[in-house]
Structures are given as C-alpha cells and as structure tokens.
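Tokens as discussed.
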C-alpha cells in the first residue's frame, strides 16, 4: 500500500488544503493502519463500530498513549467526514487509552553544562536555545530570522503549540554566536535569491498572499536553514526548508552520551530543565507558565513536584542515622 492511489489522493487532498507535512504523515499512517486492521476493506464500507473497535484495539492491545489514540481518532474522523464526505455516528463506545502522569527527566545545571560542552557551532546554538529559552524542538527549527530580538534579548515564538504566539527570554551568552550564525544564513540567502529556480521560503498561506515579496526577504528565512535546496512536496516549488528536527534530537542524545550522562535525554529534557531551574531560582510559576506557553498552570505545576523530590524536598531517614 506504499504507493496506494487511494492514500496518494488523500495526501493531495490535504496538501491543497494546506495541512502541515507532519499532520499529513500522521493521518496517512493511521488511515493505512486502520485499513489493514479491517482486512483491507475500503473505508467507505466501514462505519463507526469499526472505528471504535480499532480505537479499543489501540488502547488495549497496543497500549498507546491518550495523545496517540487521539491522533488516530482525528485521522479517521477526517477520512470519513472530510475526504469521503460521509456522516458518522458519535464515537462513544470505545476503550480510552490511559496513562499515569510521568515526572519529567531533569538535568542538573552541571549536567546541562557538560552536555552543551559537547556541542559546537550551530548545534551549540540549538542546544542553547532549547535550554536557555525553553523551546520545543519544532518551535526551534521553525524560528525565522525576524524572531530574534537582540535589543530586548528575547525570542518570538510564532504559531507554537495550539497555534499560539509567545515571547521568551534569550540568554546574553548566545547573542554573539547568533550574530555570527546570521552571517552564514545571509550567505545562504544570497545564493538562493541568485538562483532563478528559488521560489522563496515557505510562508503561512494568508501571509504569502498579503506579502508576496516577503518569502525572498532575509527576515523571513529560517534561522536554522537546511544545508541544501529541496522540492516542496505540497507545491512542487524549489525552497530551502528548515533544519531537520529529528537530526536535532540525534545531536542532543549524542552530546549527552559523550558527556557521560546516564539519564534518558532528548530535546524536551532541556525544556524540562529550563522550567525546573527557573523555579529553583525563585521565578514565579506564572512567569514560567508564560515562558513555556502552557494554557493551564496545572501543566507547569509538574515541575514543582520534581523540586520536592530528594534533597530539595523530603529528607531521607537514612541521613539521620
């Protein structure tokens, strides 16, 4: 089914409607999985009961997380109601996935220093922004040149999780390296605009119409651009995409290993560490909530639980012997 005309038509349908590449890939994965699970029957012949049976299978047999089950549900509702234009009955009779709340993995400040010490050049900048500004990985790679405000030492995060905007702090130590990095970005940009095939960087649909020339301006180029031009799958145009987000995670994991850190480390670990270290230094939890872009302060409160562990909270009775 890798080259299924049906799946390809779904992909084209979503591309025309400006769905993100990540959403298209996720929806196609779950739609394909659903079709295979149902004996490769055509989705037009499958109903709500089949969807509920599949969602229960994911929760009970696959033991997926609530978030993963929700993505699968959204993909199948999209398939039936948007792509096939079929009405479906309310989906209420399926086993919902459950998951116990996990405490985040947090590095000490010495561990963060050791990890960043294993990174150089653009990778150091990425690690510095992940930890120093508490960015999510996808927010980092989607930053544009214009989003860095050197005067106010802040970073503008546009269209973050939930399509929300926010402003986060920027460490002074990154200012000089960022200035040097921007010279390389400008060099790429000069090469690109001299290339007749270059169609400009991808722009949000409404802004592309409103400011047609902006896609070729330096301000709108990605802060961390890919090393080469590529074909935009949605439009077929030649563009320079942003740095691959999975490669960022590989660099962070590699640095943690070289630093001798035994904890399970990812890009998000640096965000967890950012929040915990802010609270540890006395920063108000509401301020941390705003920096992280959490809608509900209860989400931020998970970091206060981390601070209450061990020597920072309950004292072990062994220490009194």
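Sequence:
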């Amino acid at each position: 089914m890798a080259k299924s005309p049906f799946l390809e038509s779904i992909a084209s349908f979503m591309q025309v409607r400006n769905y993100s590449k990540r959403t298209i890939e996720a929806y196609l994965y779950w739609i394909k999985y659903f079709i295979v699970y149902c004996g490769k029957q055509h989705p037009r012949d499958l109903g709500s009961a089949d969807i509920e049976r599949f969602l229960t299978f994911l929760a009970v047999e696959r033991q997926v997380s609530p978030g993963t089950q929700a993505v699968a549900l959204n993909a199948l509702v999209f398939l039936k109601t948007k792509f096939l234009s079929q009405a479906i009955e309310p989906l209420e009779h399926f086993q919902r996935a459950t998951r116990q709340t996990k405490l985040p993995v947090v590095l000490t400040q010495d561990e963060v220093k050791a990890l960043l010490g294993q990174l150089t050049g653009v990778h150091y900048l990425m690690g510095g922004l992940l930890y120093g500004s508490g960015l999510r990985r996808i927010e980092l790679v989607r930053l544009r040149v214009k989003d860095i405000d050197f005067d106010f030492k802040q970073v503008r995060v546009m269209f973050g999780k939930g399509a929300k905007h926010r402003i986060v702090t920027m460490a002074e130590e990154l200012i000089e390296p960022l200035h040097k990095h921007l010279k390389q970005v400008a060099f790429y940009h000069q090469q690109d605009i001299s290339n007749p095939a270059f169609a400009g960087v991808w722009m949000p649909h409404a802004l592309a119409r409103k400011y047609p020339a902006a896609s070729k301006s330096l301000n709108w180029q990605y802060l961390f651009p890919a090393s080469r031009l590529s074909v935009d799958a949605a439009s077929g145009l030649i563009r320079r995409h942003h740095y691959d987000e999975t490669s960022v995670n590989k660099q962070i994991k590699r640095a943690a290993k070289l630093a001798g850190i035994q904890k399970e480390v990812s890009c998000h670990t640096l965000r967890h560490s950012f929040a915990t270290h802010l609270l540890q230094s006395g920063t108000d939890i509401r301020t941390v909530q705003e920096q992280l872009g959490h809608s509900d302060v209860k989400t931020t409160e998970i970091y206060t639980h981390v601070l209450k562990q061990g020597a920072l909270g309950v004292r072990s009775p062994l220490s009194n012997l």
